[in-house]
Amino acid sequence: MVERKEKLDYYLERLPKFTVSRSFAPSVMARIRERQRPSYRRYKRLVVALGAAVLFVLMLTTNLPLTPRLEFFGYRTVKLVFCSTVRNPKTVAVAGDFSDWESIPMERVDENCYALTLRLRPGKYEYGFLVDGQWVPDPFSPRTVSDGFGGMNSILVVDGDTE
Amino acid sequence: MWEQSDREIVREVLNGNPDLFEVLVARYEKPIFNYVYGMVRHRQDAEDLTQEAFVKAFFALKTYKESFEFSTWMYRIARNVCLDYFRRQKIRSFFSLNTPVGEEEEDEVGDFLPAGKDPEEGVLEGELLEKVSEAVGKLPWKFREVIVLRYVEELPYEDIAQILGVPIGTVKTYLHRAKLRLKEMLGGEFL
Predict the structure, then answer these.
(1) Are A19 and B30 in contact (CB under 8 A)?
(2) Across the interface, which of A8, A16, A36 has its CB nearest the CB of B179?
(3) Cβ-based contacts of A17 with chain B (< 8 Å)
């Protein structure tokens, strides 16, 4: 008979002890050997981190179309220049589908020339100049298209190398 | 028959005979497993965690100091593995509707009946043992740990103190408080 004052001790001392399977020690050794073996999995994180770092550097330092959908990295710098050869214009602005056809005033760079730097994503844009209120296609752009109102729009193609 | 000591085996493993580590695993698999099982109370997880503890020990063998018993060092590693497990479980239960840690599994003590008893007495004792075991499983971590180390692992206070990194007096206090808590939980004939 178990004495009352020792009852808890009696049962605690009889808490069951389990044995492990026979394959336990070999399984441990197999795990150790597996982890000792150099494998791609061991370096997976390093490879992924290195790949990400290389991609990031390429995105920052090149114009390769690596992130066409990311707006921050997808923008290209485009400099539009309009030079008048016939007269000295007072105001020159540019409008295109990149500005929703709202005119953007250009800055005068010398007597006849106006310039504007835009940040555009790669693509094809229609545009033209408003020279003293008159719509003028870009005289330096080789590609034009009808604006549907009897006039012409110039075509601007922005790719990775556009400047 | 002459048997190599733990320290000698460790030295040989470090000197380029890694396969000898299996001797240490075979030597301590049972106590370490019972300690881990006593803490996590889930057989499959306990087996996996015990294996992990040995794997960790193998790769940390260079840090083993011979002033410690290998078994004590092994318990400490197993303890850290268990603590990591509970942290993971805590995070998991935070993100899911699972039951709290320690209550997922049915205790396996139900199948255990004390030997050498007549069947009726054996059944009664088996039931009480099951109750005690369940109550141990519900103790807070530090109390459960001292109970497992003292009663399942049958370790002396000095070893328990080394494993837990606390003074012997603290071990005794924990043990006393753990038993009081158990009596409160079990009530009735245990009071």
Answers:
(1) yes
(2) A8
(3) 30, 34, 152
